[in-house]
Design goal:
single chain, alpha/beta, Aspartate Aminotransferase, domain 2, four-stranded mixed beta sheet, 12 helices, 15 strands, transferase, pyridoxal phosphate, aminotransferase, transaminase activity
């Protein structure tokens, strides 16, 4: 029997939850089941019917207001007026593909490349992070001459044929490619190693050696630098440097998947990889880039990209279209004008400090970690054993939903709350989130005590 997908199935609605829904919610879920493919999932045992968003807030069909602590699609905030205006203006003029000359894509590319290390000078555009990572794998194979790709044990990098083959988070129903190898996540909370960087580099070398033993030539290491699907694992700044050196020594490339840690989210740097002092060979982007408008990108060292692009034409009909690029340019401008990188660092630091205080009052909180507005809140049965408590995490998520706070879980055991609000999240929102978490943890603990008392 296939194992469930940690990113799709852990916090999801299932048929047995339908009895608790009101008539309208039941009608909609039944209609979805009838009309949409069965691969889709809804969040929560009692799904949320959202109809409007603004900044860090969302409203449901009943008019109830929610605090969004999960959404990095609308990264700078739901329905940001600057993005709306840019898309509306460009849509009135032209929207077409990249096989005609258009200045906007060139201006944006110059601007975007200006945020990256000087060694990265070329860009290509797609619509989704999956497409960007798919192309990155093709480039890695063309440049290295190999096929083997290394990812972390609970990685998620997309839904295409190539990217699903390097996404163990999709569950065993989606088999990994024979050329994929997994390394354990660099989890400082659980890994007992004096030097996390040296330990992780050694784990990558083990998998490269295993590839060689099976006649597979190594092509590259693909990772998001905060290891989001593995449970939000920022680790100490700089620890990835040794791993990247191992990758290069063995003829492979480092692909930095910046769909989640990029665009100012980590606060310490504009890009997640930058806090480690490394220069990737390829950088991929996705959701946050257009704040809800489908656009993604691949940025690369020219000599690495040339191994692919000198021989193989690439065309993506909607990738880099003027409307999507207008949205992306607006996002860059807003990040600068609103100081969102500094904001993420400062407000995220305040939030993490308050969560650490909360953890002192609740024995089931094992670890609070993160950087900027990207925080993992790990729940365990007890601190001594560090045994993951998935059931508690799922109950807490549902209790938060009752208090109009939206988030979900991550990690191989589904026991880490993934706190990743839009960058519009403000200091005054901290109390709502922390108070709701406090109530949820207290309520769940009391319910467990009650259940343990014999009738």
């Amino acid at each position: 029997m296939a194992t469930r997908s940690t990113i799709m199935d852990t916090n999801s609605f299932r048929a047995e939850h339908a009895a608790a829904l009101d008539a309208d919610e039941r009608r909609l879920t039944e209609k979805r089941s009838k009309l949409l493919g069965d691969s889709y999932r809804l969040f929560y045992r009692k799904p949320v019917h959202l109809v409007r968003g603004q900044g860090q807030y969302l409203w449901d069909a009943h008019g109830d207001k929610y605090l969004d602590v999960y959404n990095n699609v609308a990264s700078i905030g739901h329905c940001h007026p600057a993005v709306i205006a840019a898309v509306h203006e460009q849509m009135q003029q032209l929207n077409t593909h990249t096989r005609y000359l258009h200045g906007r894509i060139l201006d944006y590319t110059e601007d975007l490349l200006g945020t990256l290390p000087a060694e990265i000078t070329k860009a290509m555009y797609m619509c989704t992070g999956s497409e960007a990572n798919d192309l990155a794998i093709r480039i890695a194979r063309a440049y290295s001459g190999g096929t083997g790709i290394i990812v972390s044990q609970e990685a998620y990098h997309g839904t295409s044929g190539l990217t699903s083959g390097v996404s163990p988070a999709l569950g065993s129903g989606q088999p990994l490619a024979a050329t994929t190898r997994l390394v354990p996540a660099p989890d400082r909370y659980r890994v007992d190693a004096p030097d996390l960087g040296a330990w992780f580099a050694a784990e990558i070398q083990k998998q490269i050696d295993d590839m060689a033993a099976h006649g597979i030539q190594f092509a590259g290491f693909l990772a998001d630098s905060i290891f989001s699907s593995d449970g939000v694992l920022p680790g100490p700044a700089g620890y990835l440097k040794e791993a990247v050196e191992v990758v290069h020594r063995n003829g492979g490339i480092f692909i930095a998947d910046e769909v989640q840690p990029g665009f100012a989210r980590t606060g310490e740097a504009f890009w997640g990889f930058a806090r480690h002092g490394v220069v990737p060979d390829v950088v991929t982007t996705g959701k946050p880039m257009g704040n809800g408008i489908p656009v993604s990108g691949l940025l690369a060292r020219p000599e690495v990209l040339a191994a692919f692009s000198d021989d193989i034409p690439y065309f993506n009909t909607f990738g880099g279209n003027p409307v999507s690029i207008a949205a992306a340019q607006a996002v860059l401008r807003v990040i600068r004008e609103e100081g969102l990188q500094r904001h993420s660092l400062e407000v995220g630091g305040q939030l993490q400090a308050e969560l650490a205080k909360l953890a002192e009052r609740h024995e089931n909180v094992g670890d609070v970690r993160g950087t900027g507005l990207f925080i993992g809140f790990e729940l365990v049965t007890d601190r001594a054993s560090k045994t993951p408590d998935k059931a508690l995490a799922l109950d807490v998520v549902e209790k938060l939903r009752e208090q109009r706070v939206l988030t979900s879980v991550a990690g191989p055991h589904g026991n880490v709350l993934k706190l990743r609000p839009p960058l519009a999240f403000q200091t005054h929102d901290i109390d709502w989130l922390v108070s709701a978490l406090d109530t949820a943890l207290s309520t769940c603990a009391q319910q467990r005590r009650n259940a343990a008392v014999p009738a």
